[in-house]
Amino acid sequence: MSRLKMGMVGGGIGSFIGDVHRKAASIDGMIDLVCGAFSSSKEKSLASAKELGISDDRAYGSFEEMIKKEAKLPEEKRMEFVAIVTPNHMHFPPTKMALEHGFHVICDKPLSLTLDEAIELEKTVSSSGKVFALTHNYTGYPMVKQAKAMIAKGDLGTIRKINVHYLQGWLSTAVEKTGQKQAAWRVDPKRSGIGGALGDIGTHAENLIEYITDIKINAIAADLTAFGDGRSLDDDGNVLLRFENGAKGIMSFSQIATGEENNLGVKIYGTKGSVEWYQENPNQLIVKWLDKPKQIYTPGGNGTYPESSAYVRIPAGHPEGYLEGFATIYRSFAKELLGVKNGKDISTNPDFPTVIDGVRGMKFIYAAVESSKNNASWIKMN
Amino acid sequence: MSRLKMGMVGGGIGSFIGDVHRKAASIDGMIDLVCGAFSSSKEKSLASAKELGISDDRAYGSFEEMIKKEAKLPEEKRMEFVAIVTPNHMHFPPTKMALEHGFHVICDKPLSLTLDEAIELEKTVSSSGKVFALTHNYTGYPMVKQAKAMIAKGDLGTIRKINVHYLQGWLSTAVEKTGQKQAAWRVDPKRSGIGGALGDIGTHAENLIEYITDIKINAIAADLTAFGDGRSLDDDGNVLLRFENGAKGIMSFSQIATGEENNLGVKIYGTKGSVEWYQENPNQLIVKWLDKPKQIYTPGGNGTYPESSAYVRIPAGHPEGYLEGFATIYRSFAKELLGVKNGKDISTNPDFPTVIDGVRGMKFIYAAVESSKNNASWIKMN
Amino acid sequence: MSRLKMGMVGGGIGSFIGDVHRKAASIDGMIDLVCGAFSSSKEKSLASAKELGISDDRAYGSFEEMIKKEAKLPEEKRMEFVAIVTPNHMHFPPTKMALEHGFHVICDKPLSLTLDEAIELEKTVSSSGKVFALTHNYTGYPMVKQAKAMIAKGDLGTIRKINVHYLQGWLSTAVEKTGQKQAAWRVDPKRSGIGGALGDIGTHAENLIEYITDIKINAIAADLTAFGDGRSLDDDGNVLLRFENGAKGIMSFSQIATGEENNLGVKIYGTKGSVEWYQENPNQLIVKWLDKPKQIYTPGGNGTYPESSAYVRIPAGHPEGYLEGFATIYRSFAKELLGVKNGKDISTNPDFPTVIDGVRGMKFIYAAVESSKNNASWIKMN
Amino acid sequence: MSRLKMGMVGGGIGSFIGDVHRKAASIDGMIDLVCGAFSSSKEKSLASAKELGISDDRAYGSFEEMIKKEAKLPEEKRMEFVAIVTPNHMHFPPTKMALEHGFHVICDKPLSLTLDEAIELEKTVSSSGKVFALTHNYTGYPMVKQAKAMIAKGDLGTIRKINVHYLQGWLSTAVEKTGQKQAAWRVDPKRSGIGGALGDIGTHAENLIEYITDIKINAIAADLTAFGDGRSLDDDGNVLLRFENGAKGIMSFSQIATGEENNLGVKIYGTKGSVEWYQENPNQLIVKWLDKPKQIYTPGGNGTYPESSAYVRIPAGHPEGYLEGFATIYRSFAKELLGVKNGKDISTNPDFPTVIDGVRGMKFIYAAVESSKNNASWIKMN
């Protein structure tokens, strides 16, 4: 099996998400990082390349340079896809250019700075004939896939109630004023877009429930707040949810929930049973039943479906974590690329989040902001 | 210490809440049950009395009979207070009559069938010069009191986010059509009032967060649903919350959350820290901090305040439960009565829920129903 | 239903276990405390009686006085049974005397100061024709009874491994030197007997596993330690266990396990499945299976057997605690007494711990001490 | 930074632990797998190589062939270290040969088939001037390192009690007779040595407690059992522990603990506090104190020491798992090799388990077997 060659935009040494992408890409031994525009400073990009064991001539000072120069390299050397791990405002430009130059793309979420960009990217992906993946990584956890499979098979009956929360506390104080880079761009509308916590984590929550249930949100009523002094973007939000099938629900997300680390959790209730899952302890799925005792499923453990156990790397009881969930997105993306390389058509319903999920996330951001401006009135998401 | 003499309205053998009240009243050895109108059928009331070891002449066929006859008994024999443990529509009449005949009253929640009744009762209590307690029993748990004390002392800083849920699954199917009495009256507007799950458990959630934080809800936007076939009252609700101090939050309650037993939980976030508590495992309070490791407090355990440890009956590590929490309301009520007996004034801010909490609960029900009728528009609660 | 009349030996105001017994006796409304020798000081006994609402003439200065004087009272006034809640050295004398004067007895554990006393009491109980109960209260928890029922029905297959621990930290420092009464008698061989933590909590652990599995311990190898400066009795012990059916296991108990409150837990493994239970969160039984997902049973919850749900006082999800488990012993004892009053024979296998369990506990203490003196050699327990 | 070149002995496609080693080696981007004797069949080794993207000429049919041929390759191509991932009986031969041919070695545990081999390897490592690491991977978890650091700093005071368990259920039935390869060699003394579960997981438990506490076990009394029909090696064991500093403890391990997956847990009690950790939920360390509330530490979370946070790859709340813990051993080993390559001396106390830990593990196996043969008599481990 030959390995796939990856280029990267962003993710210089010290970046959080760039390092996550690199580790996630390497766990399963299918991908080699061969080049990068790790920074908009050529010097910093070179330094990162050196640290990562990449030769100087493959370290670029801009994504434009990278895409153009790589495109001219011989095929056996040339990168095959681009991983985009920049702040939100820098998702659209390199994604579009890479696709148009014949490279597949895997991009961090949310899809883009604006909804217009998202809609344009949907068209670009389609016309490019290239593969595009969005790293809504929480869909990569085996227990999330188990929940999805149980609902798809009807084990829980008709879904009637969906509650989701994503609670962090790292913006409880004004860390953006302390030189913390992660915070600085997230509270800046120029780099984040119109959503703050909403775009950063609310979209994960939205994606997760639609992924697990395969039921679309129909309308939302959102109450967004910027608690932090001087912040123009929300750092907290509460949302009423109505789903296309008549289910109701609630979402709460926050980056000022003091003391919370990365508390993403979901509870989904059907007529026959329910599922409950928490990201911070991801190796268990709590399943409650109308008339049987509560069960705890574990990755690869007794009673799990192939739809989840296929994503488990190690025997039951050996916990997998965030990086493995992330790696699952990369592995599925890599398998798709290998298929395409071998002449298969691009999948219409691939095993990873796509540009369609990305557009949906941007619609969620826009609907929530509009709702909140109108005192939490209902806004349709279709 | 002489024991207080209690009469009971409702709570015939086989009733859920009547038995709870009796056990709660007896745990601390301060109260004796001496008479009761346990049923509107004299025969059934007699049968219950026999079972409970109460003499036939103190078993009454109606609350009117009980109140009138007891009022004529000599003081050393006469009941001193009435516990009212009937369905909602039967809270107002016996409460009012008992107060007006000089008896103290402890009543199950919600306060009454209608808001008008509640407002009238507030006046009656005031003019009667008698003590009235409402059994919002969840305020009796030591860890709830610990959370309240920590917030009152400012340990958590300014409160900014309050999330609460109360999830049950026992009405997931149409049990009211199977002869289940608990279900039958709860889905019947004539006996329950205008709120279903809203009145039954939503009011507990509302009371709990206002009790713990001492911050009033300012306005709510509620989305109520009757999922059960043919139900006219809500069996599920999701609510956006805005508090008088600027905090925001969310409430979700349900009786169709399949597989849930009695999952009442609360998460409250301040600028310095947060608290998290779950009724099904009530002997721990999870406290998260801005800059210190997460802590777990236990009743009477290390670091607890007198404001909570005073309510602990047994050493740390010996779990107390629902009945003890309930008993704490009874004990505080009993202490108040003993004080009054000994010539103390009635407390203006007693250590148990009062008619004012009851009015507040009714306002919450009415605001939620009005909001929901208006597509979850904001309704003030003041 | 007439109530049973209880006298008490020990348990003056401020005592831990006396108050527990009183609350446990009162929860179910079947028992009235009518008299007591609450202290060996008449004055203190009177003070306690006053506090407890007992008339002065029923407050005695010694158990001898109480037993003799009560025996002369008319039957409708006379106490019917005695609750003995003194330190270990004061279990035997009042138990023996009460039985011989025609009173039933319920006594705290361990049964006696010495094994000889225990063996003598077994005979006295037998010859007295009276009912004797020992308050190994942890057998009263519904989930303990569920575990017992599952094993009895063969759900777990053949039992092969039994691990139990009982860990407390309250003797981590020399609290016995600070005037703490609970500590003072527990470290004193004259009042505790030859076992320290061994007798105080090790016997609970021993009783619990034999109760749940109905399999006897065959032999033990015990390593006891007195970590506390100047202590002559063990405050920590580790024990290898061999069972009559070939199962093996391990026990660890301690009162110097710093930070532990009352951590009693058990894991029992059969050929088909296993059960796991923890006293500090007693309302769940974790059941693991050879080939099915792990389950969590709750009191009165889905799938529980009548053998456990019969002991639940309130609906599933409403936690019961230590007092309720304790109360279950009292309730079963009270039902037995009512039966005997109504002419039934004394049960040969009653629904509460008996003198036989008490003798067994004393044998365990003696075997452990002998083993430990012989460098943890194996000592038979039969 | 140039990457290190790894060869592998064993670990053909389908093997559990081989795949774990490969993923662990690749996560941090410091190591490339360049060759392997993946199977004793040349054909199978070639197939595995193809699957792993390794060229045919680097796939060997035996470790001897690999070591000899690689030794002759030019330095820039030649493997730099060997990872040995075979059953126990095949640890010693390739380790010894590789070291003697100038290759560093990282080897799975236990160190060898026999204690004699282990002692010989200790000498070989010493004389070879090469680096040797043993993959006691559970020492790689950040919360294990946090516990170690807290004890080293004296936060818990003097350690007095150490309880450890490692419970699995996968050998509850005779899976070794079903063609399950993992089971087949583990129950075979020719391939496993004299310990069954003892060597497979007991040694992990032994290593973990000595690693965390830095206190040596002084003597053990072990009761080993082979519950499985026809098994000659233990599949279950219970052990009393005495430590060099006077602490006492207990160990229980099993592979017939039905329903358990990979339940390794440890509780360590000092005079001031205690720590508790479970491998199946590895991202929390429970810390209990003499006089403060219980705390929960998380990797990289509030209050963690640099000694643990240095090993965290992603922000607090993003769970790491088994592969990351394993990868930490590889990363530390790789850093040591890079240091040595750059002229540093070999560390005398490196940041990964060494041959000394391996000898210790073998001594534990031999002491436990001897003790068990002598009816659980005490055997010294020094």
UniProtKB/TrEMBL annotation, chains A, B, C, D:
Ranges of residues in domain GFO/IDH/MocA-like oxidoreductase: 144-276
Domain of life where this protein originates: Bacteria
Protein name (Swiss-Prot/TrEMBL): Gfo/Idh/MocA family protein
Pfam families tied to this protein: GFO_IDH_MocA (PF01408), GFO_IDH_MocA_C3 (PF22725)
Annotated InterPro entries: Gfo/Idh/MocA-like_OxRdtase_N, Gfo/Idh/MocA_oxidoreduct, GFO_IDH_MocA-like_dom, NAD(P)-bd_dom_sf
Domain Gfo/Idh/MocA-like oxidoreductase N-terminal: 5-135
Organism: Aquimarina rubra
